[in-house]
Task: inverse folding
């Protein structure tokens, strides 16, 4: 996409001064950042920096103590998690979350169901619903999982489960994706495949990516935000972040930032 | 038993009156089995389909039964009125109590359904106009379009069988539908269902009302089978028995619930002929069944 990197219109997603305390501990301490269409914005930081808690607040699984989440110009801070999904904000989980007893296609078809007609239909068999199956297959194809459609999701390999989880997010027809460590636990080959899939998705979605794999982050991200102890330490292009002295200090003894 | 076919048991029940099981005792026993199977089926739908383990399901049965009794006391005995009233009353009771109960989960859900069940029990006990503690004896079985058809034991037998088979097919179709798929997803992984945009509450509540309606139907048949309705039919022990039938048959299997109920009734009946202390044998038998049949009598078969 020719426009990538240029600032196009309003950001799709804005986090404005999010705060979350657990007891005396500020897990999210005034985080503000934004996410634009066609961008992969990575969030990195040492363990315990509050990355996952931040994703929870954006997706609606944890309510912030203060601050706002603006999505597509609308304040969604008080919307429930499923309501945010319906608004176009899909997410994946750090620990794979799929319907293990369903086939891969049934998983994806169900994820598409909210966009294709009412779910309060009680009689016709969903498995023979062509609309749902077509939408489900499209999502599986987008992550290269079409040939596994009839396989029980629980029997897929770890990497395929991660692919399926991406397909489930895509099948909800979102505008933004919140991906919480999509590469967690993936082997070398699986990682390469997932990175290729994410890269292919970039142009059509806005992607907020939490990831520990620094090679992947610097290969994929258009912008990087570094969190430390619940605060934004720095936001910038991957090159700027690599060069940032404060970031280097925060990571000393923690993880090497590849150059 | 691994691929037990529910059609077989239903076929056996259909043939039974022609195979010598046509005495008063046999008809009574089979009616009892079918009524309990219908109630267990509706609970099996809740437990296996929605993951809602209720310990107050007998109350739904009771509401259906008391609807028959109350209408009978006021001279309304026409099935075209009584049957929809019994079903609707139980569905409404499920909707109202479920609206609160479904906000909780796990042990809390079990306790709150138990509490609602006991409330229904004590309410029934205090209905002095309808027999109170002693229960209420119907003037006669419900009429169908003015005909006293249900007085005919054979007709009543086949009505019970048809409604049981119909309810099984209906609940099976619902589980396979769009709605059922969402419901099964909320049971298997509620977080994932939410991530697909489904708020589980509405689906669970609808399932609870559907189960209530089917249990209300069972209540209608129960009242007619015994021509008697009493608070004991609502007691929490009965809810526990229904839950046991579901587990005995195999959680997640609708035909399993039917099989579990049939096995329960037969075992209870056989043991009672041996000794008056039959519960001392029945209890350990149930424990052994749970230990050695972890997937229930229906095995891994999913209906």
Result:
């Amino acid at each position: 996409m020719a426009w990538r990197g240029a600032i196009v219109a309003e950001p799709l997603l804005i986090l404005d001064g999010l705060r979350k305390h657990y007891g005396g501990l500020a897990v999210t301490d005034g985080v503000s950042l934004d996410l634009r269409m066609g961008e992969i914005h990575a969030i990195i930081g040492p363990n315990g920096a509050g990355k996952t808690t931040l994703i929870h607040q954006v997706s609606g699984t944890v309510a912030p103590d203060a601050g706002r989440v603006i999505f597509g110009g609308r304040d969604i801070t008080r919307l429930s998690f499923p309501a945010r999904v319906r608004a176009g904000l899909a997410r994946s989980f750090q620990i794979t979350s799929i319907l293990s007893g369903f086939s891969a296609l049934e998983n994806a078809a169900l994820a598409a169901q909210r966009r294709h007609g009412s779910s309060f239909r009680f009689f016709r068999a969903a498995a023979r619903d062509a609309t749902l199956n077509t939408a489900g297959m499209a999502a599986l194809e987008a992550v290269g999982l079409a040939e596994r459609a009839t396989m029980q999701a629980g029997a897929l390999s770890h990497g395929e489960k991660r692919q399926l989880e991406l397909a489930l997010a895509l099948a909800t027809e979102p505008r933004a994706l919140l991906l919480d460590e999509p590469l967690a636990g993936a082997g070398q080959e699986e990682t390469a495949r997932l990175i290729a899939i994410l890269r292919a998705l970039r142009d059509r979605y806005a992607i907020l990516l939490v990831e520990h794999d620094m090679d992947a982050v610097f290969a994929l991200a258009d912008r990087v935000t570094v969190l430390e102890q619940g605060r934004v330490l720095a936001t910038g292009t991957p090159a700027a972040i690599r060069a940032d002295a404060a970031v280097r200090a925060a990571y000393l003894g923690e993880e090497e930032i590849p150059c | 038993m691994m691929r037990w076919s529910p059609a077989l048991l239903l076929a056996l029940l259909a043939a039974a009156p022609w195979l010598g099981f046509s005495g008063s005792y046999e008809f009574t026993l089979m009616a009892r089995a079918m009524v309990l199977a219908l109630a267990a089926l509706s609970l099996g739908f809740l437990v296996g389909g929605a993951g809602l383990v209720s310990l107050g399901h007998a109350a739904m049965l009771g509401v259906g039964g008391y609807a028959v009794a109350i209408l009978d006391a006021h001279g309304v005995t026409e099935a075209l009125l009584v049957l929809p009233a019994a079903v609707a009353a139980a569905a409404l009771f499920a909707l109202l109590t479920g609206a609160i109960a479904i906000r909780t989960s796990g042990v809390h859900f079990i306790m709150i359904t138990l509490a609602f069940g006991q409330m229904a029990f004590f309410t029934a006990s205090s209905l002095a106009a309808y027999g109170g503690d002693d229960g209420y004896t119907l003037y006669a079985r419900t009429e169908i379009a003015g005909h006293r058809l249900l007085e005919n034991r054979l007709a009543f037998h086949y009505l019970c069988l048809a409604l049981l088979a119909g309810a099984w097919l209906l609940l099976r179709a619902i589980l396979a539908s769009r709605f059922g798929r969402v419901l099964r997803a909320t049971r298997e992984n509620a977080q994932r269902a939410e991530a697909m945009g489904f708020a589980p509450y509405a689906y669970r509540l609808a399932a609870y009302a559907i189960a209530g309606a089917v249990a209300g139907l069972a209540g209608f048949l129960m009242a007619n089978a015994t021509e008697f309705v009493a608070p004991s039919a609502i007691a929490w022990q009965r809810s526990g028995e229904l839950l046991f039938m579901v587990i005995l048959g195999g959680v997640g299997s609708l035909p399993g619930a039917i099989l579990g109920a049939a096995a329960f009734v037969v075992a209870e009946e056989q043991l009672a002929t041996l000794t008056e202390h039959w519960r001392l044998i029945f209890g350990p038998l149930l424990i052994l069944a749970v230990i050695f049949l972890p997937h229930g009598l229906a095995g891994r078969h999913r209906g």
